Amino acid sequence: MTELNKRQATASEEALWRIFTVPEAPDSTLSIIEQNISQNLAGFLRESIVAVEKPLWQIERDFQAHQIPSEPKFVSDYAEQMMEKLVAHSVHTAAPSFIGHMTSALPYFVLPLSKMMVGLNQNLVKIETSKAFTPLERQVIGMMHHLVYGEADSFYKKWMHSANHSLGAFCSGGTIANITALWIARNRLLKAEGEFKGVAKEGLYRAMKHYGYEGLAILVSERGHYSLGKAADILGIGREFLIPVKTDANNKVQSAEMRRISRELNEKNIKVMAIVGVAGTTETGNVDPLNDLADLAAELGCHFHVDAAWGGATLLSEKYRHLLSGIERADSVTIDAHKQMYVPMGAGMVVFKHPSSAHAIEHHAEYILRKGSKDLGSQTLEGSRPGMAMLVHACLQVIGRQGYEILINRSLDKARYFASLIQEHSEFELITEPELCLLTYRYVPAEVQRAMALASAEKRQKFNELLNGLTKFIQKTQREEGRSFVSRTRLKPERYQRQDTVVFRVVLANPLTTDQILLDVLEEQQQVAALDKEFLPKLLQLAKDSTA
Amino acid sequence: MTELNKRQATASEEALWRIFTVPEAPDSTLSIIEQNISQNLAGFLRESIVAVEKPLWQIERDFQAHQIPSEPKFVSDYAEQMMEKLVAHSVHTAAPSFIGHMTSALPYFVLPLSKMMVGLNQNLVKIETSKAFTPLERQVIGMMHHLVYGEADSFYKKWMHSANHSLGAFCSGGTIANITALWIARNRLLKAEGEFKGVAKEGLYRAMKHYGYEGLAILVSERGHYSLGKAADILGIGREFLIPVKTDANNKVQSAEMRRISRELNEKNIKVMAIVGVAGTTETGNVDPLNDLADLAAELGCHFHVDAAWGGATLLSEKYRHLLSGIERADSVTIDAHKQMYVPMGAGMVVFKHPSSAHAIEHHAEYILRKGSKDLGSQTLEGSRPGMAMLVHACLQVIGRQGYEILINRSLDKARYFASLIQEHSEFELITEPELCLLTYRYVPAEVQRAMALASAEKRQKFNELLNGLTKFIQKTQREEGRSFVSRTRLKPERYQRQDTVVFRVVLANPLTTDQILLDVLEEQQQVAALDKEFLPKLLQLAKDSTA
Prior knowledge:
The structure is a homodimer.
Chain A: H1 3-21, H2 29-39, H3 41-48, H4 56-61, H5 75-85, H6 110-120, H7 133-149, H8 153-159, E1 168-171, H9 174-189, H10 199-202, H11 204-211, E2 215-221, H12 227-234, E3 242-245, H13 255-267, E4 270-278, H14 290-300, E5 303-307, E6 332-336, E7 348-352, H15 389-424, E8 428-432, E9 438-443, H16 446-454, H17 457-481, E10 487-491, E11 501-507, H18 515-531, H19 535-547
Parallel strand pairs in A: 2-3, 2-4, 4-5, 5-6
Antiparallel strand pairs in A: 1-7, 6-7, 8-9, 9-11, 10-11
């Protein structure tokens, strides 16, 4: 090495050491960005995220390089670049007028707490790298368990911190939570018996031969979340054995139909491994008849799982928790704290009715996750994990039951208010009523509504197709304009003869969404509709011809 | 509602709104904590985490309540409480003298960036809730792919942003990454053929019947990570079909033995589904002979996965990447950025040699993750996920190849230096040499070493048992004293006749660990050893008797 090279090496080494030892200066670009976030998150998001949409292919051009850059970069340069290329083209999920997603505004205190979590950088897989974070996570799971099952004090005293038991698992999200629950269901069903050492050890093929089944099945509403398909695939059940069961006019699974299917399967020697109830469907927000499903699961002697990833937070409301009645009979329940519990992304949970459920998936390594240790990693699907439970803990403590009561009730009441606005409005049609805080609707000019009411089935179909085009146009234009956002989905409502019907989908969980914003959204949609040159004129013409 | 109740409701509602709308005051408890973290993270951790260990049962008393508190709590009260009950009893994973974990110091800039990530609260499952974060994540995966496979520019131009392909998957951690890789291996092996629609659709039982196998197997070193057992379980392969293969004196898997086992399995009609190479074993840090394993995988026509969760970062060093030679022949590779890449917890990745690998696990929902969309969620195990890729992106840009070259080389060189210190020291024994930056050793008084050299096999066993007790005592006492930390594990070294041997385990990835700290660790261990009243006297007596 030449003297010059050596000096350069030393200089760059020193620069490198600085990023580990010297804090960001208070007047650095990144510090200023951080202050903006800390002092006015909503303002930061509003001002930093560009309103007008840039096509994806243009955004991709900024993320085209495939080689890790050779030269280090100054943090300030990087921060500036990211503001322009990343933040500007991200999604304002917290905006009170963006009522199409399940994410909402966040309480301010989660920001500094997140930094604390990252700075502490604990690893929850084992107590050796998490210490107090392990009992904290067990407490969070215990509280969620109590929210669902409400067992006696003695129950929690006995099990919450018991080394070889768990009341649930903290997960990165609802998908892992659902898979964990169904993994347990599979392993409990195909347990060791006689010479057979159980599916966990011997695998599914031998398990099926031992038990003499021709197949396993999972029954769920046709509105079940797609993560259940992943579970059926990864667990070796097969996607075709995740059986979608028809829903009624209110998007609730028909339990009689489920019973009929279970009999059919039984005749084919296909064992129903689990029934999944949905407590808040992703698209319409409806809750399955959980008590009926619990009855059926008991009849069939199978696992009963409830996917309440989104709707589970409703249990925090004394006023509305009856909507999820029967959930306490489930063997396992998924709840995502990053949906209606106001926690940032990455906080899924599954709770188990029985503290020994997770024994079915328990695993030990020879020298970590030892039997009798309190390492959380021995009963979870994931391994190394961050201390996200801390943010759920914080929200539960700072907001409290009283706070959640107000927040959840406000959301559900607001959805009912918005539904009434839509119903009273001559130019809109409510498609699904809000059972929780999710509803769907569409824009239909009054004269079209009148014409449709009188039209033949054939003609109604024609109307519907044009309305689908118009709904898509409105949703897309509104999103691109960037002032407000509703999502859209496609339903087959019974009262429209199960025709494909494109609808606006609205989730009202953001506490900052005001009544005025809801009025404005409808107002904007009407204005946008008037801009459509393709579907609207045809619709009006068709209406005119029909009533002529 | 009485007037008073109404007024109270309004007051508590207002308090609630404030947490969403009013930032933490600069002089609030939480803000002050945050400033401390931002200005002096190492100091904050040093001062906030109590050095002396508190028994777990005492910590648990602070996390005993199982009911979500009814009353909301002031953020400042909560923050104070958490400092005392949580932070004080967490683990100082970033301390330069804590060289027993795979976590290390973090660069300062990840702290404000984490806050930005949380504040933006994007959801990477679909482009609609992530926008520019999706191309960013694809770029990070592309860069890691290039690091492993080094394909031509045209390859990345074609595939990196291709809607229906993926060069890898970003995961919460290495466990999910390994499971994803083996899920793909299983589904590719048991693919659709003729009437059979593939394991994903029809399940494992029908797949096995269709292909006529009696079982599936995964071959891996006996030093393989326990996450592979989870993978074998959840995928329905069975833990008994994850076959541990003997390692040589250097803790590298014996590929000849693996070949022999694969022949035996073949005779039993058990199909080898995948071979897993370990690039950096958790306990000894050794790398399997990857080229030999690639040859064998090619012979057997099976998937070749490399678990480089910990060691993969070594590829960032031009000087040392040859140690992982053959990794570029793997079908899939796991690398955790939260280990040696200086990213906070929660950043696992798996890269795929073939851009269409993930087709085997692809899934679409009817209205999201549509075919042709760029939604990342259609080819990942997880669903909703945070924008953690941003922190990997930042580290790759800010540290750059040159920076990582220095960091990685320093770690490996430091491990070699520490090994030489141990070897030269008359009272210590190096058990495994550092191939990457992990080594194991133990304390053995010089006279005991001399006596052992001359002792019979039986007597050596007696020595060894006493040494195991002493090693545990030293490690435990050192941890409880809180000045420094090494971990411990149990090996069966060939040169000790494969007797159970308890050892100190050290990972030298923290750039702030100085040579002096390493000297101090040995010094402290010697001092602690002298405090032992149980094993040390017996050892010395035994040595005396032996040489008498």
